[in-house]
Write a structure and sequence with these properties.
Shape: elongated
Number of strands: 5
Largest sheet: 5 strands, mixed
Number of helices: 3
Strand order of the largest sheet: 3-2-1-4-5
Helix content: 25-40%
Length: 146
């Protein structure tokens, strides 16, 4: 007795149960909606450009920036007075070298907002290739995390 109608007439069930099909389609729709948000990067995110292997022929110019815990900013080893002077130096270097890479080195006690502000100044100067210098010898203090 396939149907459990209870009439006992032995009729064949000719309808298709679509409930499992609808359930599977809804689950797939939810999975695609969640993964679509992960695949598409938001416009406000910081773009990361990884370096490519270069041959020995190419020499890349580096725009070195150091932030000290005392609040000083150095560009290529020379002290810079303020944001305007820094932006002017960055624009001059970018004009001379369009593929300029900026390398930021900050002391561990430099506030986060200073690094972000420096990145914003570089962005205003149209420098988009930014790297961060890391001193591995000072990465931990006495074997403990800071």
């Amino acid at each position: 007795m396939a149907g459990g109608g209870g009439s006992g007439s032995g009729e064949v069930i000719s309808g298709i149960n679509v409930t499992p099909l609808v359930d599977i389609m809804l689950v797939l729709l939810i999975i695609f909606m969640v993964t679509a948000k992960l695949v598409v990067a938001p416009a406000s995110a910081l773009g990361v450009k990884l370096p490519k292997a270069a041959s020995g022929d190419a020499i890349q110019v580096v725009f070195s920036l150091q932030l000290t815990r005392q609040g000083e900013t150095y560009v290529n080893g020379h002290l810079v007075a303020g944001d305007d002077a820094l932006r002017l130096r960055a624009e001059e270097e970018h004009t001379l070298h369009p593929d300029l890479r900026a390398v930021i080195q900050a002391d561990g006690e430099v506030p986060h907002w200073r690094v972000i502000h420096l990145m914003d100044l570089l962005s205003q100067s149209h420098i988009s290739n930014i790297a961060f210098a890391v001193d591995a010898s000072n990465s931990t203090r006495s074997g403990t995390a800071p």
